[in-house]
Every structure is written in structure tokens, then in C-alpha cells.
Design goal:
about 325 residues; alpha/beta; 2 domains; about 45% helix
């Protein structure tokens, strides 16, 4: 065989290998990385903190999800509680992400329940599903809160926790209110968006095609995680929150979950929903970046949730 033909066939083989890696192994690897790899962010800002760090007594608690996953958390009682706020952390985080919010919740005379989602922190579980299975975690947390104290239950989540809060509340009309901070519209939407961000990190990354790589990643997330990615639709779930107080929070410069997502979710949730845009370029740090405005908006929501269904029925729609 002549040298030019050797180079030609070597080039073909190399191209096939590259295509096999890019369109075969890479989506499979990313699908597993997102769903079955157990990774926890090194939360230096909250490391070592517990409610005691803020002068609050707490109990270590555990409870189980409807599908049998053991969850670990902290319970903080208010002296004369108006209800319970269930605080739900983001992807690759733990209950530590939410601990700085507990003094405010306590000051509002609400109990606080912080817990580690499945496949996170000290809780059990082998899969992360971006809200699909995690909504059972929120359901279990609500049931535990109701076993400990009377009064309404409000979900307050960040990022994955925010999506989980909306998905769970959409299935349970007795959830009194939702604070949804930095959620995505849907899993397919956010995978596509993050792939575009990835392509913008370096000029040479632009060779990575969003199609068919995006659909392939979603396919493997579903296959390896055991769920349907298309079913993780937070915007559709928000449409089932109508008639309840809901607050959608975002950072003005958040590239991962830009403000238009919060407004789209607000539109889906109806006229009783509100949006708070906090200055800053971070993701999931709106509480830190705009604490005064954030606390004021959540205090209003808790007041409305504590007032009961009569307030939530002011629009005339059935609850």
C-alpha cells in the first residue's frame, strides 16, 4: 500500500475514533457524572456551621422517603411556631448551604427543617435525578414536619432544591407556599443551556456540537439514573401552584439560571406569584447578595402562608 493511502486510512480511523469518543463515550460519561457520581462541593463558607453557631438549639433527625431512602437532617423548633419551613439545598451541596437562613426563619416564629437530599451529604441513595426522585425527599420532609408540629409547611429551595420544591408542591396542594431560588425551567432546557456555556469557555470548545451531544447526554442521564429527563419540567409544575404564595428569586447576572427563567416560572404560576431579582453575578447566592430584600420578600410570603387558605383564595380561584 502506498504511503498516501496509508495516511488516508489512518486519517479515517482517527476520525472514527474521535467521533466514537465525542458522540459515544463523552455523553455516556457526562450522563453518569450528573446522576450516579457522588460528589459534594467543598462549602468553605459554611464549613463547620450548625444551628448552634447562631445560638439555635437543634436535633439530629432522620426519616425515610416513600421509596425507602433514608434521609438525615436537623430540626429547629420555634417557641410558638406558625408552621414549618423545609429548606432544600442545591446539587452537590448539603444542608450546610441552607444553615445561614435558619436564624431568619426562627425570628419569623417558624420551625426549620434542613436535610440532605438523597445521594447527598449524610443521606442514603445512589442517584441524583434533578428533582424527579428528590420530590419524594421533600414529600418525606413535609410528612416529618407535620408529625412534629401543627401548622402550614412552606418549601424553600435553591437550584436543584428549588426545582424539587416546585415539583413536590405541584403534586401536593397542601404545601402552603414555595420559595424557588435559581431554578431551571426543565432538565432538557438546562442541559442545552449549560452545553452552550461549556462551548463558550474556550474558543476550541466551539467544535463541540450542541446536537446531537445534548440529546445524547440527556439519554444517558435517563438510562443511568433510571428516570425520564423530559418529565423534569419545573415550568409545567409551576402552573399547578396557582392560588398559593410563590416567590421566584434570581441573581441579575446569573449566567447559569438567568432572570428570564424566574419570570417564565412566575408567568406559569399565575398572578399571585412574585419575582425578586437580586443584583449580583453568582448562582444560588441571592440570599447573601441581597439579604434585606430577600428576607423582606420571604417574610411577606410566610405571613400569607400562615394566614391560611382564605388569603390564598383572594383571587377567587379554588385552592
Amino acid at each position: 500500500m502506498s504511503t498516501p493511502r496509508v495516511f488516508k486510512w489512518a486519517g479515517v480511523v482517527l476520525l472514527l475514533v474521535v467521533c466514537g469518543v465525542v458522540f459515544g463515550w463523552v455523553p455516556y460519561w457526562f450522563g453518569g457524572l450528573a446522576t450516579i457520581r457522588r460528589f459534594q462541593y467543598n462549602d468553605r463558607a459554611n464549613k463547620g456551621l450548625t444551628p448552634v453557631s447562631f445560638g439555635l438549639a437543634f436535633e439530629d433527625v432522620s426519616f425515610q422517603t416513600p421509596d425507602g431512602v433514608p434521609l438525615k437532617g436537623w430540626w429547629i423548633s420555634a417557641p410558638e411556631p406558625k408552621g414549618t419551613v423545609v429548606l432544600i439545598h442545591g446539587l452537590n451541596r448539603s444542608r450546610l448551604e441552607m444553615v445561614k437562613k435558619t436564624p431568619f426563619v426562627h425570628q419569623q416564629d417558624w420551625n426549620a427543617l434542613l436535610f440532605d437530599l438523597r445521594h447527598h451529604g449524610a443521606s442514603g441513595g445512589s442517584v441524583s435525578s434533578f428533582g424527579w426522585f428528590e420530590k419524594q425527599d421533600a414529600e418525606a420532609a413535609k410528612a416529618y414536619a407535620e408529625s412534629r408540629s401543627k401548622g402550614p409547611v412552606v418549601f424553600w429551595g435553591v437550584s436543584l432544591g428549588a426545582a424539587t420544591a416546585v415539583l413536590a408542591a405541584a403534586d401536593d396542594r397542601s404545601v402552603a407556599g414555595v420559595v424557588c431560588d435559581s431554578s431551571y425551567r426543565s432538565l432538557p432546557d438546562t442541559v442545552t443551556h449549560h452545553l452552550q456555556l461549556f462551548r463558550g469557555f474556550r474558543w476550541w470548545m466551539r467544535i463541540v456540537p450542541p446536537w446531537p451531544l445534548g440529546p445524547e447526554v440527556l439519554y444517558w442521564m435517563g438510562r443511568r439514573g433510571g428516570f425520564d429527563p423530559a418529565a423534569v419540567n419545573v415550568q409545567a409544575a409551576a402552573g399547578r401552584l396557582s392560588g398559593r404564595p410563590v416567590l421566584f428569586v434570581c441573581n441579575a447576572g446569573d449566567r447559569r439560571m438567568p432572570p428570564d427563567i424566574a419570570f417564565d416560572l412566575k408567568t406559569a404560576a399565575g398572578e399571585r406569584a412574585k419575582v425578586l431579582v437580586v443584583p449580583g453575578n453568582t448562582h444560588g447566592e441571592a440570599y447573601r447578595d441581597g439579604k434585606a430584600a430577600y428576607e423582606s420578600a420571604v417574610a411577606d410570603l410566610l405571613h400569607e402562608a400562615a394566614a391560611g387558605p382564605a388569603t390564598r383564595l383572594a383571587s377567587g380561584r379554588p385552592n
